[in-house]
Amino acid sequence: FWEVLCTDRPVVFLDLGVTKLAREIEEMLAGRCRVLRAEYDDANLPRIAVAELADAVIDLAAPDPSAFRALVMGDAAR
Question: N- or C-end of the chain: fewer Cβ atoms within 10 A?
Fold first, then answer.
């Protein structure tokens, strides 16, 4: 996942609410990816709004991976 964030490819992150991330990382993800948060139904199954997912996949905005490159590679990325 971290390698993908270092690319210049669009990424859709499905937040299932399973992992708690530091606020700084959440902000970086929001700036780098389209983040879609799941809601859970009565059977405890995650649901993502189809229209939101379609919009996220169709959105071809070029992301800026520099923050994640610096995080993963340290000073070598600068």
Answer: N
The residues, ordered by sequence, that sit 6+ positions from 56 with a Cβ below 8 Å of its Cβ are 12, 34, 36
Residue 64: phi and psi, rounded to 5, are -105, 105
pTM assigned to the model: 0.79
Whole-angstrom Cα distance, residue 30 to residue 2? 14
| DSSP letters spanning the chain | -HHHHTSSS--EEEE-S-SPPPHHHHHHHHHHSEEEE-EE-TTS-EE--HHHHHHHHH--PPP--HHHHHHHHGGGG-
- In the chain, the amino acid numbered 33 is C
